[in-house]
Amino acid sequence: MLPNLIILGAMKSGTTSLHEYLSYHPEIFMSRRKELNFFVEHQEWRRGVDWYASHFGGSEGATVRGESSPNYTRHPLFPGVPERMHALLPEAKLIYCVRDPIKRFVSHYLHSYSLGAEDRSLEEVAALTDTPYLLCSLYSFQLERFLEFYPPTQIKVVVLEELQRRPQETLRSVFAFLGVDPSYEDARFAVPSRTMPPVAVRRRGPLKRWLVRRNKRGVYWIERNLPWLFGPPIGLPALSAELRQRLAEAFAEDTDRLRRWTGYDLASWGTSADAASDGRDAEARCARQFAG
């Protein structure tokens, strides 16, 4: 069987949390493996439809069968995803998770930095217009690719901040969108997912660098299940007022388009105390955390 629900992303915006929460609903089957990346041409597309369908074995009694792959909204790095998806799953419902784009930008940067995939400073990458950190935070830019193929009635945007503040109410809206019992409640909905706090950045010790070179997926598993192995997590670094303002301006027009399309009040994005605080240098903080 094939899925009829795809969580598109965005990366570092609560997709793992939502995937987990949806799996608790008795009418929903979520793939056991997250990030199937089937519609990314140079990743899993070559494996074929039978491989993709194999991840939904045992879902025959479910109303909804879903998967989540944030790489689906990383255009133009991974082009052609909406076309391939619509050709195979024209009736699927799509969910797009978003959050404050500045916080997502920084979280994405720290994720790459912690894996040893990024050596530039936060200031350097913020000055560029073609990095995945910026492009993945341009939510309307990413979403509009899917709107070329799917009607708005098949797409729902979920705001991470709302999922964190009002999980049951937000999930009730998601369940209604998916056509399953919206009144279903689970005590686990009130408990923040283990992946929901800000970014959990670990020390880049020799062990982690060795693992990243050989098996990046193994590193993700360790971070999720054995977090003590790489050291304590840190939160998002505060940004200088100047850098925060520069990023706010970069995202303003795209965020306004998203606000108009969804009707959501997104006024709090980019204006939180954490994002606007002065006096701390994000690059220096990263360097201290990852030293040794």
TrEMBL record:
Residues 3-184 form the Sulfotransferase domain. GO terms for molecular function: sulfotransferase activity. InterPro entries: NST/OST, P-loop_NTPase, Sulfotransferase_dom. The keyword NADP does not apply. Keywords: Glycoprotein, Transferase. This is Sulfotransferase. The lineage of its organism: Bacteria, Thermotogati, Deinococcota, Deinococci, Trueperales.
